[in-house]
Write a structure and sequence with these properties.
The protein has 56 residues and is an alpha+beta fold. The protein has one domain.
Length: 56
């Protein structure tokens, strides 16, 4: 997802780095990350339009 997103997506913590997600997702928004937040035990912090931090 990082290579297609305008925002840099950082993964904070070893737990989140071990998660595997597959599928077909739109790359023009961060809606996919918001959906993952609801279905997995992760949190998203968006710092402006250019940086997103995902953590468990």
């Amino acid at each position: 997802m990082n290579r297609y997103s305008k925002a840099k997506i950082l993964l904070k913590g070893e737990d989140i780095k071990q998660l595997r997600v597959s599928g077909v997702f739109p790359t023009d928004s961060l809606a996919m990350l918001e959906a993952l937040q609801k279905s997995l035990a992760i949190r998203m912090a968006q710092l402006g339009p250019w940086l997103v931090i995902l953590h468990a």
